[in-house]
Amino acid sequence: MQNPKDLGLKDSSLVKNFSYINGSWHSSDAQLTVTNPADNSDVATISNAGVAETELAVKAAKDTLKMWSAKSANERATLMRNWFNLMMENQDDLARILTMEQGKPLAEAKGEIAYGAAFLEWFAEEGKRVYGDTIPGPSGDKRIVVIKQPVGVVASITPWNFPNAMIARKAAAALAAGCTFVVRPATQTPLSALAMAELAERAGIPAGVFNVVVGDDARGMGKVLTQHPDVAKFTFTGSTPVGKSLIAQCATTVKKVSMELGGNAPFIVFNDADIDAAVQGALVSKYRNAGQTCVCTNRILVQSGVHEEFTKKFSAAVAQLNIGNGLHDGINIGPMISNTAVNDVATLVADSVAAGAKIVMGGQQGDAGENFYQPTILSHVTNDMAIAQNEIFGPVSPILTFETEAEAIAIANDTEFGLAAYFYARDIGTIWRVAEALEYGMVGINEGIISNAAAPFGGIKQSGSGREGSKYGLDDFLEIKYLCMGGLDK
Ligand SMILES: NC(=O)c1ccc[n+]([C@@H]2O[C@H](COP(=O)([O-])OP(=O)(O)OC[C@H]3O[C@@H](n4cnc5c(N)ncnc54)[C@H](O)[C@@H]3O)[C@@H](O)[C@H]2O)c1
Ligand SMILES: O=C[C@H](O)CS(=O)(=O)O
Predict the structure, then answer these.
(1) Residue 452 Cα, ligand 2 centroid: separation in angstroms?
(2) How far is the CA of 219 from the centre of ligand 1 (A)?
(3) Which of 40, 111, 184, 215 is most exposed by smallest CB count within 10 Å?
(4) Is Oxidoreductase one of the keywords UniProt gives this record (predicted)?
(5) Sorting pLDDT into bands at 50, 70 and 90, what band is 1?
(6) Helix axes 106-126 and 73-89, enclosed angle (nearest 10)
């Protein structure tokens, strides 16, 4: 199976065309073409795996679980460190592959590779700190001991918007805990996952420990990963509607689940905020990945006293954003993942304008290509409008105004989502009251970029459950076992 053209890589062998199962590259009869959303050009043709290959991957993970969990944390850490080093040594190629299949600007793609690799580095060390407990027994003849053990085979399904980091954030914790791993990445972005598998193999991660099955039968492959009796834990990153259906599928075998789902992040600017800092924070939080991240600012709430200044400065900053092919220098806004995604955003804008919102700038597809949408700002937005109630997942900033702190909190919390929230203020009383009142798993305070390997990433309400990254991220892949030792008085 030949790739259509030279992709401009230093190491072209990082482009793999087959699923990676039990340490082998698996060819399937059907084929799938990966396209570049910047211009819909063909990037690569890959084998289109399905249910049978997914079942093979689960078997491989099951067959190697005892071997992998029997290794010491130090042995696992050494191999994970090798993988981290290889990811960073190949950062440029991995970023180029990522941009070609997902669209984000090359600089952001390089950042994603470093972000994903950071989880390997972080959990290589965290795996050495899986501590247990001894607890004073209820009587002199007994001793209580608590140990932690790997949950077992972990299956995962990941989205297209971070095709490297969303896998690394899960696999790193799972492998460090002693679990084995199967991932089915998004149909649109398989190449990043397969390149990760190639580097895992080069790092010495044993066959069967990390498996990648790529194919467009999402439902069929998902059924295996959510219902196979040998899968102990299912972890999903994606939209809330799909997450709900997958949770239900996992119920048939009472699997452990963790869900990283949709968001509707408020970005609140108070009268005492540093306006220039707030403008920069809103810019990066909103327009990263062309607004296609789960923690992107989705509503900008500005207190009336600074509304005019903020809107003027924010508009000037957004006007500086350059839209185009993510491989080209100086591009800040790449394409959206598909024309369907563009149309979805255009519909949200049109519905909200019809309901009274005003276009401050953008609001059109522009002439960069069919998968592009101009960086857009809407004013006069109210929280009942479609643009405020839905996860936009595109480069549109709805600006709402408020008078009081209580009003801002009420608007911010008026959503079924609870992933990330942001606010800019300087009064310490405001900061503590608002931070505690916001119903979100993560809150950026005078900061627009909050994701890193050391922090517990995750949401509440219908944004999901569980945490990824930080010391808490390991808990999702560990079982607690209670040992009660009796007869010790004889
Ligand atoms: N919380 C987080 O960390 C996080 C991170 C990234 C994306 N997301 C969310 O993901 C969404 C965007 O990503 P998306 O469009 O890929 O989401 P999606 O839910 O449509 O798809 C996510 C993954 O699930 C697969 N899938 C879709 N339907 C399925 C089914 N019925 N059975 C099995 N698998 C199925 C897709 O192929 C993809 O691999 C947004 O809502 C975003 O907020 C959340
Ligand atoms: O889109 C979801 C990602 O989790 C965003 S981040 O890179 O982790 O902030």
Answers:
(1) 9
(2) 12
(3) 40
(4) yes
(5) low
(6) 170
| The pLDDT of residue 2 is above 70 | no
In single-letter form, the type of residue at position 416 comes to E
Domains and CATH numbers, the chain: 4-261 (3.40.605.10), 265-451 (3.40.309.10)
**Which residue owns the Cα nearest ligand 1 atom 30?**
219
| 234-246 core/surface letters (b: 16 or more CB in 10 A; e: else) | bbbbbebebbeeb
> Which residues are part of the catalytic machinery?
260
The per-residue pLDDT of the chain, averaged, comes to 97
Ligand 2 atom closest to the Cα of residue 451 is: 9
Q: Is the CB of 295 under 6 A from ligand 2?
A: yes
Q: Which of 98, 156, 166 to mutate to test the pocket of ligand 2 (most atoms within 8 A of CB)?
A: 166
Is the complex ipTM higher than 0.95?
yes
Residue whose C-alpha is closest to residue 337's, from 312, 304, 372, 381: 372
pLDDT at residue 276, rounded to an integer:
98
User: What's this model's pTM, rounded to 2 decimal places?
Assistant: 0.97
Answer yes or no: are the C-beta atoms of 119 and 446 closer than 8 Å: no
Pair 202, 232: CB distance under 8 Å? no
Nearest residue (by CA) to ligand 2, atom 8, is 451
The encoded tokens of residue 22 equal: 């039990």
What is the rounded distance in angstroms from the CA atom of residue 412 to the CA atom of residue 295? 14
- With H, G, I as helix, E, B as strand and everything else as coil, classify residue 465: strand
Ligand 2 centre and the CA of 428: distance in Å? 28
For ligand 2, is residue 293 a contact (CB within 6 Å)? yes
Instruction: Look at residue 400 and tell me whether its pLDDT is greater than 70.
Output: yes
Which ligand 1 atom lies nearest to the CA of residue 464? 1
The Cα diameter of the chain in Å comes to 84
